[in-house]
Automatic annotation (TrEMBL):
UniProt name for this protein: Uncharacterized protein
Domain of life: Eukaryota
Length: 142
């Protein structure tokens, strides 16, 4: 009968215990390196997020400033355009009033002035229509 405390033969398929310990140590070292690399990688990602967050804040600030500048420019331009339209309306009324006064003073001018006044008024009204300005037609001749 054979003894149970017998040492396995050297041609056994089981690796020796020492090689397991070496492999386990190598795996633990690789695991430590990997953990350090991952921590470093996460720290780098945090730094990138912080840098990009700061840049996006600056970009957002610049875009808001530009938006305010554009809105201010639009408001100023609208005011200038409205003032110009008002001036043109007043100029047209001044021309019509001056023509009426002059025609009342000098009846001999009436036929020539009426032709010119009609041409001017028609041209003026058509020009104002291009800019969607509603202005009453001049009074018709008596």
């Amino acid at each position: 009968m054979e003894s149970s405390s017998r040492i396995p033969p050297s041609n056994s398929h089981e690796p020796p215990l020492g090689s397991f310990e070496v492999s386990l140590r190598e795996i633990k070292e690789e695991q430590k390196k990997l953990a350090i690399d991952m921590k470093t990688g996460f720290d780098d990602i945090k730094k990138l997020f912080a840098a990009h967050d700061e840049r996006f804040k600056l970009l957002d600030k610049d875009v808001r400033l530009l938006k305010h500048q554009v809105n201010n420019s639009i408001n100023v331009a609208s005011g200038v355009i409205q003032a110009t339209v008002n001036d043109l309306k007043l100029s047209a009324q001044d021309v019509i009033n001056a023509t009426k006064v002059r025609m009342e003073e000098d009846r001999s001018l009436r036929p020539r002035v009426m032709k010119w006044s009609c041409w001017f008024s028609t041209t003026w009204i058509n020009w104002l229509k291009k800019f969607d300005v509603n202005y009453p037609s001049p009074p018709s001749s008596p």
